[in-house]
Task: inverse folding
């Protein structure tokens, strides 16, 4: 572990602690719930940042894992009547889905372009399937799938082992922030490990990594599965501040995540988190303006970002800062 | 005595073209073999078949008598085969040091790898490049970095595809020295167009022409062979 990594991890933990302690005390309920959505989306962005920015796997359907996490959580929690076992199950489902899909793609030596197409297709199939589950015949145990309407009765998290101790929106916000910080730190640790360094080497040059004796398929599968797990966690949190519905799988979200990561900076972890927060804030704000389509604004920002800061917000800002500093003290 | 590496009638066809057309070659343990031939003779393609980057259309490849035909390249690498490819294949976004660490981490722990990486860079005279980003280096330096990455994990068999292309005179001299030194412990096959260089390092030379072995003999005899001169000058040869 490098000194710089240690500093970044401690900073992230402190930042998360401050936000988790302060915001629930000062923010209105509505704002806090919105903030929880932002945080869950930031976790989703982080999951893509990991597999795209470091694994070099451009997954156009990261929402597949997001939605699977959400649905698996809602369905198990409804059936069990509480969330204690629903959470691990809802983490396992998207992780296993990523493992299975990844096995097929990487061991089948599917090329990068097709990986984009396949992941997108999988998320669209899930979207269509979830959409078509309207009617009483569509249920898993006690849980109605609800078609287009999703599962509005998605239960809230409770303290593990205590079904009556349902968490308040404030507590769920704190949980979400802790999850974001944990996922960030986990990703840092993964990338600093031997496994993570080889993943990055494979992104840089897969043929060379193989000529040095590394089975690239295994490493890609590993990082893809971690990405699926983190994406699933984002889905569980989203289910707790909104509710699960087919839109979780939608092209709209898959596209947005890619934009957040791109604007934040592919190849960084912190950039996509900031990108997700900023752009969600901006589109929410733009949505309140009369006569303005927030998606148009998002589009303009994406174009500007690609043109002005092709490496992304975080690397771009770092470069500008570096230039300023050199300018002041040459 | 069985050869360390043996290719038996290896054929590699791309569409209608046979880039390698029935090559038989055996390299003994400890040898430093030169592999020469005009452009397009099939040298790099043969190397790709030997390392599992390409699956030969026909023929067998044996390493220490064991059939390795069709094994994926990572599996061949694990059996102790290292290759420096003709177009340097490097981790452009990483530092020189990290690239060396990647080469070494498969077999060594972090601390040991760091020591060996430093030694390999020292040996190739590029210790001062350790913190530089590989993608920003000059061509000759990139060749040395790749050479360092290939030799650092000490593979039994080292294949070098035009290792000195783009190197300065000084860099070439150092590369020749390193290759000779490596040969004390490793078996090496070198592809080169620079006959001076081949003469300075190899004892036996195999000449490839149009995907076939044209001659295989002691270096000075090969270099004075009229057939070899003819193929290099582009004349038709009745082999
Ligand atoms: N992937 C491929 N697809 C089609 N043809 C190929 C492919 N790779 C090589 N060839 C052809 O096979 C022949 C042998 O190429 P190869 O690169 O092995 O030659 P070489 O002896 O290494 O030449 P050089 O000295 O120029 O490096 C050439 O005619 C080349 O065009
Ligand atoms: Mg060649």
Result:
């Amino acid at each position: 572990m490098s000194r710089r990594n240690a500093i970044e991890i401690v900073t992230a933990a402190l930042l998360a602690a401050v936000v988790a302690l302060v915001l629930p005390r000062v923010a209105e309920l509505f704002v806090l719930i919105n903030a929880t959505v932002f945080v869950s989306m930031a976790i989703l962005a982080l999951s893509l940042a990991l597999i795209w920015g470091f694994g070099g796997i451009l997954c156009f359907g990261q929402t597949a894992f997001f939605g699977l996490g959400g649905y698996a959580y809602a369905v198990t929690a409804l059936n069990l009547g509480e969330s204690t076992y629903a959470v691990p199950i809802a983490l396992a489902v998207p992780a296993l889905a990523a493992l299975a899909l990844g096995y097929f793609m990487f061991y089948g030596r599917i090329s990068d372009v097709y990986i984009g197409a396949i992941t997108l297709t999988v998320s669209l199939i899930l979207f269509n399937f979830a959409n078509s589950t309207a009617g009483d015949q569509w249920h898993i145990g006690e849980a109605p799938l609800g078609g287009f309407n999703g599962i509005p009765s998605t239960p809230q998290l409770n303290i593990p082992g205590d079904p009556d101790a349902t968490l308040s929106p404030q507590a769920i916000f704190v949980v979400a922030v802790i999850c974001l910080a944990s996922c960030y730190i986990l990703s840092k640790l993964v990338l600093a490990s031997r496994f993570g360094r080889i993943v990055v080497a494979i992104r840089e040059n897969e043929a060379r990594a193989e000529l040095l004796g590394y089975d690239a398929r295994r490493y890609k599968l590993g990082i893809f599965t971690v990405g699926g797990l983190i994406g699933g966690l984002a889905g569980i949190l989203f289910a707790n501040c909104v509710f699960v519905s087919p839109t979780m799988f939608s092209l709209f979200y898959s596209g947005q995540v890619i934009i957040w990561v791109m604007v934040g900076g592919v190849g960084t972890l912190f950039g996509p988190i900031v990108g997700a927060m900023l752009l969600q804030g901006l589109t929410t704000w733009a949505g309140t303006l009369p006569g303005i389509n927030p998606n148009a604004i998002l589009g303009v920002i994406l174009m500007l970002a690609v043109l002005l800061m092709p490496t992304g917000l975080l690397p771009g800002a770092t470069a500008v800062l570096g230039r300023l500093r050199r300018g002041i003290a040459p | 005595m069985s050869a360390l590496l043996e290719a038996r009638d290896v054929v590699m066809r791309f569409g209608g073209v046979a880039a390698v057309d029935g090559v038989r070659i055996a390299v003994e343990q400890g040898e430093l073999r030169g592999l020469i031939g005009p452009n397009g003779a099939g040298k790099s393609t043969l190397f790709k078949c030997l390392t599992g980057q390409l699956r030969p259309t026909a023929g067998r490849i044996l390493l220490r008598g064991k059939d390795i035909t069709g094994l994926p390249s990572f599996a061949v690498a694990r059996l102790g085969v290292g290759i420096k490819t003709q177009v340097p294949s490097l981790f452009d976004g990483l530092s020189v040091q990290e690239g060396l660490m990647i080469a070494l981490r498969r077999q060594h722990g972090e601390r040991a790898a760091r020591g060996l990486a430093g030694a390999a860079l020292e040996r190739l005279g590029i210790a001062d490049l350790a913190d530089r980003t590989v993608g920003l280096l000059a061509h000759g330096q990139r060749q040395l970095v790749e050479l360092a990455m290939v030799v650092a994990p000490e593979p039994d068999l080292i294949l070098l595809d035009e290792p000195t292309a783009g190197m300065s005179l000084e860099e070439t001299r150092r590369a020749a020295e390193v290759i000779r030194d490596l040969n004390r412990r490793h078996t090496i096959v070198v592809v080169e167009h620079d006959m001076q260089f081949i003469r300075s390092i190899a004892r036996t030379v195999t000449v490839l022409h149009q995907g076939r072995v044209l001659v295989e003999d002691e270096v000075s005899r090969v270099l004075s062979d009229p057939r070899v001169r003819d193929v290099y000058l582009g004349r038709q040869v009745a082999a």
Observations:
- The CA atoms of residues 27 and 35 of chain A lie 9 Å apart.
- Chain A has a mean pLDDT of 90.
